[in-house]
Fold these 2 entries.
Entry 1:
Amino acid sequence: MSRRGTGPRLAVNPITCLAHGMCAELLPEYVKLDEWGYPILNGDPLPPDLVAHAKRAVADCPTLALRLDPTS
Amino acid sequence: MTATLDRPAVDTADLLPRLLTGDSELAAHRARFGPLPLAPFTGTAGRRRLVEGIVHAGLRGRGGAGFPTGRKLATVAAGRKTPVVVANGCESEPASSKDRVLLRYAPHLVLDGAALAAHAVGADRVFLCVERGTGHGERLERHLDERRDDPVRWHVVPVPRRYVASEESALVHFLNDGEARPLASPPRPYERGVEDRPTLIDNVETLAHLALIAYHGPDWFRAVGTGSDPGSALVTVAGAVANPGVFEVAPGTSLGEMLDAAGGPTEPLGAALVGGYFGTWVPLPQAVHLPLSHDPTGPAGTTLGAGAIVALPAGSCGLAETSRVLGYLAAESANQCGPCHFGLPAVAEDMAAVIHGRADPGTRNRLRTRLGVIAGRGACKHPDGAIRLVASALDAFAADLDMHLAGYTCTGLRQHPVLPLPDPEDRDREWR
Ligand SMILES: Cc1cc2nc3c(=O)[nH]c(=O)nc-3n(C[C@H](O)[C@H](O)[C@H](O)COP(=O)(O)O)c2cc1C
Ligand code: SF4
Ligand code: SF4
């Protein structure tokens, strides 16, 4: 898995995430769901063309569990 | 389990024990060590010297992860608010007794260490966390009555008796809101913990070593142990050994020598669990020369972890033992994070199916898949530790796994359980 790039990274608060699965629908390239419906994130920096999608997924997470962390 | 204070560790017999000297009363403690060594570390420059001394000593945390203590001190000391110190003496690990033994036999070394750590980071309060109902809180209060001159305010905090309640963010949560379940990060406690202050959380054994470094200096500390894991370490050795108990050893000592420190095996051994219930299984006799420290070693990446070692007789079933412990760990989940709340019981069910001959053709792959997706996805490292234990069992007992999956019944199931589990009567069900 490549860690290069400067885009933001997806992260989830595992306590507030309630497995709504919205994120996997909106960003299937970077979010898979496990057999219990919880997201498995690709934590690599997002490519520029996906950042808008990612922001949408973050905004649409019903429990505000999903976030974007800046790549330091 | 009794402490064995008179059994010298191999190789470094004349240098040990350092911690377990048996001076449980303040007068004897001060007679051996002298006054709390604050004078050499006064002022900002003094505090910095103390932190640098701990960095130079190379002390690593004894609570399981082996994180460099000096680095944590420096981070907490650099925070903007006045920090607080939390001494973690809960020792929720069922296979471990070392912190209990330390608190009983060298309480003032722990208290010295906590006071010195507070001084080093500029904290004026120390929270001493111990499991409730164990008598340790009361004993500490008694010792503190004699220590009116300490430069900190002490708070003894009885914590619910649950495995996860002593995880560091759970302690922060408990101290702030009275609920001992882990918190999501960021922030990490060293950034923002108790009362949103930078919070130094250290295992009580770590703090006792810190005190010894302040008394004797970093070079003295480094005379024992390995270059990257110096000093001595307390280990709890249990299972099929003649003299189970707590021993002070040098990191780098081989597994075989540590078992010998506990009187050696009482019967032929098939494996040992090293590092407690977040640890790894290693096969015996193959791993008898494996040097144990906080640096990963061997095919399973074995470390001393929380210092608990359990010797498993050749006639016992390591998979059955693991299944039993995993059931316990799954039940101890704080049930806040899906991958832990649902994942651990699912893996526990797979393991139970394996050992009871209920496995189906998909079990092996399902186990492997599940073990691959759970770690790193909880708010705390509870699921990671439980998964590591199971993964190492499947490797160390690969031949047994094949037998079980082929439908053979397990004679090990009829053996007496070896890995200790707590009596539910002595544990709490609530988090408050
Ligand atoms: C589930 C869980 C339980 C823990 N229980 C303890 C404990 O009982 N005592 C302890 O010192 N550390 C425990 N830890 C580790 C602490 O979170 C923390 O890392 C440690 O107290 C830091 O001290 P150290 O740097 O001196 O090792 C636990 C960690 C986890 C994930
Ligand atoms: S949308 Fe939010 S709550 Fe739903 S799975 Fe994704 S992170 Fe979890
Ligand atoms: S990972 Fe498990 S034990 Fe840790 S906070 Fe989440 S649910 Fe609780």
Entry 2:
Amino acid sequence: MEYETVIGLEVHTQLKTKSKIFCGCSTTFGAPPNSHTCPVCLGMPGVLPVLNREVVTCAIKLGLATRCTVNRSSRWARKNYFYPDLPKAYQISQYEAPICEHGYVEADLESGETRRIGLTRIHMEEDAGKNVHGAADDDHSYVDLNRAGVPLLEIVSEPDIRSSEEATAYLKRLRSIVRYLGISDGNMEEGSFRCDANVSIRPMGSDTFGTRAEVKNLNSFRHVAHAIDYEARRQARLLAQGKEVVQETRLWNTAEGKTYSMRSKEEAHDYRYFPDPDLVPLEISEQWIEAVRATLPELPADKEQRFVVEYGLPPQDAATLVASHHLADYFETVAGAVKEAKRAANWVLGELLAVLNKLGISVEESPVEAAALAALIRLIEEETISGKIAKSVFEKMVATGKAPAAIVEEEGLVQVADPEALRPIIQQVFDDNPTQLAQYQAGKTKLMGFFVGQTMRATGGKANPALVNKLLREMLPEPTAPADGG
Amino acid sequence: MDLAEVKRIGALARLDLGEEETAAMSDQLTRILDYVAQLEALDTTGVEPTTHPVTLGEAFRDDAVRPSLPTEAALANAPATDGASFIVPRIL
Ligand SMILES: [Zn+2]
């Protein structure tokens, strides 16, 4: 039987506030264990949490950016469970009345198609601490509560996702959005952007859902995709054997490329949510929402659309450029300083990204500034250098940090665009290659390319290619026989 | 509240209840629930559930860092520490 995969994703994104959600402890990462704790985030008796206003603003931002309804009234709930990294034995979260509901994210697929993935809800909650497990022969675990109380937004998607490719596209777009908004680092490897996947399968064409497994421990886009594909295969195999899929939590094991059941001896999760009596219901005024709306930056989907219209870029190129607003800004700086925006896009997506990937750095750390790349492209547009020479100049810019004009000057790379300088060189090429010249004259006109190549080589690549073509057409003898194509 | 439910709730709260305690709890909890259930006699059609006696709405703090506790103070009540972390029996 042919099956369809049905996926819903739960993303936890850590907010970049200065202080924790309910106390004034710092959220700075990497501090000595338990140095950013206080009676509130340690869960001491008798303390009261006080909500950080900025957390609400961040949630409103994301809600508006994903076309959610921002609820004017929402409530805090206690999610009860025991774990050493949870000092109060409950997590303050939102349950029945989350701050945002019913939005969507539009994700671009390889095919150029755009998929709209619904968002069920976005809610605010506090993070737990961190458990560090000792060596194999150490029967202790070590708890650091610096992260306990760091604000999170949980973004729950509808089960609208149908493949690992769609899941990746959705996550990348969602991450771009939180980064554009400046509310989170969105770093999966470092845990500031975490994803759990609910995966089920159903016969193609069916409109009821199969039993789902929840897969955890996915800390890169690649792991998410692999885990979804693995789960779909595992569940199809079970059904083919006449077995049933069990609703359970499974852990992704990267080394083995498999998911494993997290069999818990305890009874199924029963979080016994109830309204938190320590926190008043959250009332958000229309003015607050509108004030936040006024601060929203241009978002990836709008920017992508604008790049297509304003710069005439292919949608795929625009999508790659807007994935990071830093990359998009870089491109716009270059595009604004040269004649052809398309050429700017080609350089940014080609040479620049290749170098950044090779060096493993982001565009903010680029060794070549946008203005310098623009200066290089202008040298091509002014026909001072050829596109080919420009690539080697770019390599030298990366290596030395020098300005393109200085490199061109120092290395004598200025394009030869003077016909009187080129004619004797072409004549020398003819003299050196009498056989090819005779063959050309005999009708083998494809040798034009050979002569272009020889001339370019004789000038160290500095000849203006268009001019070389023009001069060759003038100077080559008229073929006597019709072209034989050989 | 029957014995099975008392045991389940006891387990969720990590309470190790003996047979006698379970029976006593079952009896006491049932009486408490029956007492509160008298409220069900009231007609609450159209009344919003009350989760808080007060609705202040505006109870925020600004996003500013305040000094945390010294680590020694944070760890002071813990049964076991290494001076930096809380130590608990191995979890995984
Ligand atoms: Zn604190």
